[in-house]
Amino acid sequence: MSKDTGKPSSEFNICEKPFSKNGNLIEHKRIDARKKQICCNICGKSFSVRSSLKSHRRLHTGEKPYRCDICGKSFTQSGHLTKHNRIHTGEKPYHCDICGKSFSGNSAFTNHRRIHTGEKPYHCDICGKSFSRCDAFTYHKRVHAGEKPYCCNICGKSFPQNNDLTKHKRTHTGERPYHCDVCGKSFIENGCLTVHKRSHTGERPFHCDICGKSYAKNYSLKSHKRIHTGEKPYQCDVCSKSFSRNEYLTIHKRSHTGEKPYQCNICGKTFTAGSNLRTHKCIHTGEKLYHCDKCGKSFYRKYTLNKHERVHTGERPYICDICGKSFLQNMHLTRHKRIHTGEKPYRCDICGKSFSVNCSLKSHKHIHTGEKPYQCDICSKSFSVSSSLVKHKRTHSGEKPYKCDICSRSFSQLLDVALHKRIHTGEKPYHCNTCGRSFSRSSALSTHKRTHTGEKPHKCDICDKSFSQHRDLRVHKLIHTG
């Protein structure tokens, strides 16, 4: 009894948990006492009630006494079977009074409500990160501990969560228990089905609070936000290169190991990424799955369609933090930044020449080998780089898909539009670090620099005379040919 009020004490003096009634405090003390008495004789874990210990022991024995009489699936606990049965009946008895969404289980309902309240009651005492769900917190702690307690008895692979193991096992069994009632497509996990259904409904519930763009998946929104923040949390432990998405890091690591796990069953070619294999297979089928609804153009990859759509919308989400210039693609920004830094990370192992982009190095190497693997199917002219063939084909078709939005002049190449626009803007981003002169084109700067160095790389194969520019060599050759 409290000396001051004469009322029952409302606080347990061991754990300091408060209670409104003395009876609740007494019961709580009994539970705490029993915790020390009811222990698992296999792993030593303690429980407050004997039924909890009984359920726990089934983890060790593998016993699943509760069986679904519709699909035959078995469970360790009666409550899990009850929840499972609602998949068959469609029953969702728990309703959110804020958004009206319904749930088959109380725990899913409780977790959902925290989306509205923002409550994250589970805190990691190692890194300070907070979580709205107990299972997410438990999984997170295993990241620090490196613990992967769930092991596949077929291939030996280990997982930090039991549901990860369950999903993984379906890769061995081929089981796809979740079916779309619109198109009949099947999925390994329910979350994939939920996301897939949005392709039918057009629902995009995840919105970027910076630019307003919407996504069907929360993961896609998180990845998108890294465009704005520049965050690249996934780092390669071999070369220290960083990536915005974990799957990009996984694919990148294969460049070090040489692993190419995806093989084409038609021609046998192998690939580092599944998406590359899917795109490659379209070469055999001729199928272009992704269509632009503005101009009707089709693409093998969704990623290529997304880039193309920015031509219509004018969106340039990648911005240089040095000069403010914006770009359609992140790789274009990375390449552009090398103008400021002077970085040329790609080096020819034959002549030592360096390049700011890998594709330029590959094209350059064809000068040494004489290889021209890309051939025009109309006139049979060959090219050392694929992009040159694409550009060349437009001389046959007359296609000029790139239009200047200032004067409406059209061009066959996107680069030509960018260069042309500098006539309107007066922009000259390429500066000579010797005399300070500026140029609108990189090639013009390269040619200019030779006036300082005296370099004459273009040599006549008849008389050995050298020239600083290729066009001067072409004019000179006319002397020999007449």
Low-confidence stretches: 1-12
**% residues in beta strands:** 5-15%
Shape category: elongated
Q: Helix proportion of residues, in percent?
A: 40-55%
Protein structure class: alpha+beta
Strand order of the largest sheet: 1-2
Q: Summarize model confidence as the mean pLDDT.
A: 84
* Sheet with the most strands, sense and barrel status: 2 strands, antiparallel
Q: Please, how many helices?
A: 17
What value does the Rg take, in angstroms?
A: 32 Å
Distance between the termini: 118 Å
Please specify the SSE layout and strand pairing.
Layout: H1 22-35, E1 38-39, E2 46-47, H2 50-61, E3 66-67, E4 74-75, H3 78-89, E5 94-95, E6 102-103, H4 106-117, E7 122-123, E8 130-131, H5 134-145, E9 150-151, E10 158-159, H6 162-173, E11 178-179, E12 186-187, H7 190-201, E13 206-207, E14 214-215, H8 218-229, E15 234-235, E16 242-243, H9 246-257, E17 262-263, E18 270-271, H10 274-285, E19 290-291, E20 298-299, H11 302-313, E21 318-319, E22 326-327, H12 330-341, E23 346-347, E24 354-355, H13 358-369, E25 374-375, E26 382-383, H14 386-397, E27 402-403, E28 410-411, H15 414-425, E29 430-431, E30 438-439, H16 442-453, E31 458-459, E32 466-467, H17 470-481
Antiparallel strand pairs: 1-2, 3-4, 5-6, 7-8, 9-10, 11-12, 13-14, 15-16, 17-18, 19-20, 21-22, 23-24, 25-26, 27-28, 29-30, 31-32
